């Protein structure tokens, strides 16, 4: 089973964390903008796994619901 097949076993809306690319597709925000947003120290919806950044989906949803602009 390839990595892509394994990732598709659980739908994005049920995952605890999602990749930047998945977050971009999920939210409509570009990957570059997400990188800028998650580089900030006050960002509480990013988790680093080695050098890979993952988005905490529920916290990201909460942030988007309360944000006026990004």
Automatic annotation (TrEMBL):
InterPro entries: Tn1545/Tn916_Xis, Tn916-Xis. Gene3D superfamilies: 3.90.105.50. This is DUF6462 family protein.
């Amino acid at each position: 089973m390839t990595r892509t097949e394994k990732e598709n076993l659980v739908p994005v809306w049920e995952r605890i964390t999602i990749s930047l690319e998945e977050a971009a597709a999920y939210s409509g925000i570009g990957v570059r903008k997400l990188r800028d947003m998650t580089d900030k120290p006050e960002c509480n919806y990013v988790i680093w796994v080695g050098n890979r950044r993952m988005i905490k989906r529920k916290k990201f949803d909460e942030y988007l619901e309360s944000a006026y602009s990004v």
